[in-house]
Write a structure and sequence with these properties.
heterodimer, A: 323 residues, alpha/beta, Rossmann fold, 5-stranded parallel β-sheet, two-stranded antiparallel ribbon, 57% helix, elongated, B: 519 residues, 4 domains, 6-stranded mixed β-sheet, 19 helices
Chain lengths: 323, 519
Amino acid sequence: MFASVADVKERLRQAKYLCSDEMATVVFLADRLGKPLLVEGPAGVGKTELSKALAEALGAELIRLQCYEGLDEAKALYEWQYAKQMLYAQVLRDRVSQTLSDTSSLREAFHRVADEEDLFFSERFLLPRPLLRALLADRQPVLLIDEVDKSDPEFEAFLLEVLSDFQVSVPELGTVQAKQQPWVVLTSNQARDLSDALKRRCLHLFINFPSLESEINVIRVRVPQASEQLAAQVVAFVQEARRLALKKMPGVSETIDWARSLALLNIQSLGQEEVERTLGVLVKYEEDAARLRSSTPDLLRRLNRRLGRGGEDEERRWRSGRD
Amino acid sequence: MDEVMVRFIHLLRQAGLRVSSSEALDAMRGASSVGLGDRDTLKSALRATLVKRSDDITTFDPLFDQFFGGGEGQSGQGQPGQGQGQGNPLWQRQMDIETALRMALEELARMGRRPGELSRSVLRGDMSAVLALMAMLGLLGQQNQQRGQPGQPGQPNGEGQPGEGQPQQGGRPQRGQRGQRGQTGQMSAWQMLEQMGWDRARQEMMQMLDALEKMGERELARLLRQRIREVEELFPRWVAAEAADQREREQEQQQNQGATSGEGPNTEGVQPDGPNLEKKDFSQFTQDEIRAMEAMVQQLAKRLSQDWSRRRQVGGRKRLDFSRTMRASMATNGVPMELWFKQPRRNRLRIVVLCDVSSSVRNASRFMLQLLYSLQHQRGRVRSFVFISDLTEVTSYFQTHTIDEAVDMATAKADIRYWAHSDFGRAFRTFVDKYPDALTSRTIVLILGDGRSNFYDPQLDALTQVHQQAKRVIWLNPESRWGWGSGDSIIDLYSQECDVLEECRNLEQLAAVMQTVND
């Protein structure tokens, strides 16, 4: 439990995740209302990262369910371990015949076996998949359902049931009720619209690319080995690059990776050559790389002007220009 | 505080947001756990609980700023003109008026008087109650050729009414000339006002004011007087505008032969101060119709995409995957305990949409692009192309932009010479030649266009090729069926290569198409 919005912010910060007031407020609310949190936003702005940080801040286990096309209940919920059941049956064969030795009729033997069948369909042979694991956990876990938009509508409908009651029914065992209602985070890249029913059950958080200042702060926290100057340059460069029409805009995660690699190469300050050498970390398509390479001198000039003056006014003017 | 929230949510619903009651409850619980103290926190809290579609944020933000006062917080994006001028935020004022009203009514009740419905609702700014009253008196369908100044007494800066800025039908006077036309509008509005008992309501309002003054509530009395003055000035105009609006909608409906199915004219014609109006580019549609259409188009898209998956489950037997079963049986001493089946091929539907954006179907093409957009958001695998005579792919616009931007970009797409004449033959040819990978046996091709090809070579063989390679070809024609085959329309020729050809100019027909698509 978080005590207040400020508490959320502080504890996430300790988990090395910097969040805006808005994000902190929504997280706080989700915590208070016990509602799943649906996080949407472009790729690489830290949607998944948020749930990891949450788990750390809450000292909870993170259980992750990665969605993909064709994911079905069996893979998300539980599976029976047939092989293990079989093995047990083999090993216990003698014991079984011993038990059945004093039976006089087939019917009696059958009933005796039937009495014991619970043994073979017990939780011992159940292999819990992420969803069931989240329900069975003793301490409140953080359940991350990543990229829900990739799953099929049928699976989404199934999720709905789990998320509203936090219980599932396993035919052989009966209904499993959550021991602790898990803290649920769903993420979506908006590849498709989620159903209204699912959205209604969740609190909605839209994360966008951060401002210059906050992104610099993120880099300072996540890549402490990078110099202050480098961090500022890297972020300014990436933010400028996002304004180009790239196929895949570099996210915050790319900024972090890039800063980290530059720091690893002991680069103190960004120049044409440094950019070209490490471009692969930042962009993932050949076309984007070519595009970025050709506009690098321009970008560098612009960012130096911006950082050179560096005033807050400049920053604000730039940001309003972008909006 | 709950009352404030209920009011705000009511306002959001009027603006077209879908807020369910469970969300409303969440919002209230949310607001009470963060408190009303900090505006920005409250805003985030309400946004998280009430706004579930990122498109709606643009509606929500200005409404919030206006309702809870100022945009001058750190959010920094306060648009000028929103919530300007008033000392108190809107809701504070509203609450004060409510208090004043309650006290006045109590006082009058003690004297044995009970003011009528009209005066109370008008003072409260509850326009839906007034509309209900007008409907009861049969005032809304009246033939009344005057139109007046739109304005809403409940909210001081009442510009931006539904329907404003809409293109007028020929011969009708333009609306929205302040002052000038207001006079005649008021003249006829007086008759309606008379029937509603406006004179009595005015007397009652004065009585309420008196009662308050006698009680010594000077501050509240001052507020109420101010409100009464506003109401006296604006309400007659509002009545006139409302009546004119109503009539216009009816006429429009008749013209469109019931364009909207089930979605009657918006009886709650009162929009909050029009944050929606910016979105109003679709020349022929009112905001409500666009909303209704969005929902229907989404259903259409869903149905299109589920069509296949359902059939896959019903038909087709499972086939044993022998090698996998053998491999699995190793763990169980060669006893095949676990059977593996071949995965049925996931027949994910692919949709390719070809959309005509030429000037002959300009009005309809926005509507068509809306359909494209919804399709794309429903399913990842939609490829969209627009054409006039050149054809180009616009899939990426729809993937990365909001609906309004995407539609603008698609219509303004540089690769397309916008003033060219549409040439379906060439467009199909380009499609077949340039995008051969777009067609598979699982692809449904949706063509949206009027089939008026300006006497260019129809190049039927190109469409034939599309038809052969695709699973289905569905042609939606925005032109009235009566016009097909006349002049340069070669839709009849093309029809032999379409599995489905339907007229599709409004929601009703779109719904009908949904049926045929599903069989």
